[in-house]
Amino acid sequence: MDIGIDKIGFYTPNVYVDMEKLAEVRGVDPAKYTIGIGQEKMAVAPLHHDSVSLAVNAALSILDDEDKEKIDFVLFGSESGVDHSKSGAVWVHNLTGIQKNARCVELKHACYGATAGIKLAMGHIALNPDKKVLVLGADIAKYGLNSGGEPTQGAGAVAMVISSNPRILSLDNDSASMTKDISDFWRPLYSDFPIVDGKFSNEAYLGLLKDVWGTYKEQTDRELSDFEAMCFHLPYTKMGKKAIQAMTEGADESETKRLMNSYHDSIYYNKQVGNIYTGSLYLSLLSLLEQGPELKEGARLGLYSYGSGAVGEFFSGVLKSDYKKHLHKESHESVLDDRRELSIEEYESILGRALPKDGTDIEIDNEQVNIGKAYLEAVKGDIRKYTIK
């Protein structure tokens, strides 16, 4: 059965920080941010945006009435959940108007959550080919002011409709995955910020990539030459370059050059947004599809998903004919172009704000809400109140 991505959209908050200006204030050579890690702008989430509101905005940008009737499963991948018990998918289900007879689940494993959602969605569609599944990857990457991870922060969400007979990308049913119990990145329940061993995490990312790519080749007899392009989880965009170099080690130089050409198209959006954890791989995919030249029907794309802690998976998909007709390039570019640049003082003020942790009610100042339909308006009686404009 032909199962895959029928629709895909993304959303990011309407404010950002210029990475060169942040570097200057931090006393760092700007090239360390713009070239060293490959970032130009960093999305910042004001208090009125959390993983739920980001996901709702991404979903509303692509869903129509037919989708809302046929979707019977909402899978919310996030490591920025807003409740230890209630799934963020439940809020998304309600706020987007999806029909009531749907299952809603939140999935967590670092940046791998949305990929887990896609795999579950494929199984569900195989059993229910007339249904659709909404898969979401929504996160706010937050490391704190003046921290080592500060330049790799970001915020945003990607929403995908998985269905039979998809119009964008058919997903192959052969993949290779691996799990290792390691401590490269994690966030204890008592901590507002993650604990990161950056060097070890980079090594683990590339190590699992080599392992799953090797297993994938053995299982499928495919080689680099079978792929038109590769997309990767991007905690920062330079990571994608390192991944291609790792995969092409020992290969003909022409293969590296060919994949590097498409790599630049696949990082355009991520350079403007930063790290969005579960959505980062799919933001890269969207960037490739919308910012790159139209690829031939049947072109195979490789995708590598990595979640610290750690799970890695390599899988692939084949492009459909006229896939560009079903994308939303202009609206996505508008989301990025219409943002407002924050001064460093404004950015530091926003990052320093947090919702009360003692149950105190709060009405959130929403003066900056000028893009997006959904936002967090208040917390009253320990219940989050979301608004649709």
Key attributes of the depicted protein:
2 domains; globular; 13 helices; 35% helix; 3-stranded mixed sheet; Peroxisomal Thiolase, Chain A, domain 1; alpha+beta; 389 residues; 10-stranded mixed sheet
Intertermini distance: 39 Å
Task: Evaluate the radius of gyration.
Answer: 20 Å
CATH superfamily of the largest domain: Thiolase/Chalcone synthase
Q: Which fold does the CATH topology of the largest domain refer to?
A: Peroxisomal Thiolase, Chain A, domain 1
Number of domains: 2
Helix content: 25-40%
Count of helical segments? 13
The CATH architecture of the largest domain: 3-Layer(aba) Sandwich
Q: CATH class of the largest domain, please?
A: Alpha Beta
Query: Looking at the structure, what is the overall shape?
Result: globular
Q: Could you tell me the strand content as a percent range?
A: 25-35%
InterPro entries: HMG_CoA_synt_C_dom, HMG_CoA_synth_N, HMG_CoA_synthase_prok, Thiolase-like
Binding site for substrate: 148
Keywords: Transferase
Pfam families: HMG_CoA_synt_C, HMG_CoA_synt_N
In short:
The chain has 389 residues and is of the alpha+beta class.
Strand-helix topology:
Blueprint: E1 3-11, E2 15-18, H1 19-25, H2 30-36, E3 41-43, H3 51-60, H4 65-70, E4 71-77, H5 88-96, E5 103-107, H6 113-127, E6 132-141, E7 154-164, E8 169-171, E9 176-179, E10 185-186, E11 195-196, H7 198-220, E12 229-232, H8 238-247, H9 253-266, H10 268-273, H11 280-291, E13 300-307, E14 311-319, H12 329-337, E15 340-341, H13 344-352, E16 362-363, E17 374-380, E18 383-388
Active site: 79, 111, 233
Pfam family, one: HMG_CoA_synt_N
Binding site for (3S)-3-hydroxy-3-methylglutaryl-CoA: 29, 143, 242, 275
